[in-house]
Amino acid sequence: IGEIQRFLRDDGMVKVSRSIRELSFKIRHATDEFIRVHERQPTLTELAKTLEVTMDELVLASDALRDPASLHEQLFE
Amino acid sequence: MDNEMTLSFIAISENEGLARMVMTSFIASLDPTIDELAEFKTIVSEAVTNAIIHGYEEDGEGIITIRAKRNGQSITMTITDEGRGIPNVEQAMEPLYTSKPERERSGMGFTIMESFSDHLSVWSEPQKGTAITFTKEFLPVQSNFVLGER
Amino acid sequence: MDNEMTLSFIAISENEGLARMVMTSFIASLDPTIDELAEFKTIVSEAVTNAIIHGYEEDGEGIITIRAKRNGQSITMTITDEGRGIPNVEQAMEPLYTSKPERERSGMGFTIMESFSDHLSVWSEPQKGTAITFTKEFLPVQSNFVLGER
Ligand SMILES: Nc1ncnc2c1ncn2[C@@H]1O[C@H](COP(=O)(O)OP(=O)(O)O)[C@@H](O)[C@H]1O
Ligand SMILES: Nc1ncnc2c1ncn2[C@@H]1O[C@H](COP(=O)(O)OP(=O)(O)O)[C@@H](O)[C@H]1O
Ligand SMILES: [Mg+2]
Ligand SMILES: [Mg+2]
Question: Which of A44, A55, B68, B79 is a plausible cystine mate for B47, CB 3.0–4.6 Å?
Answer without folding.
Answer: B79
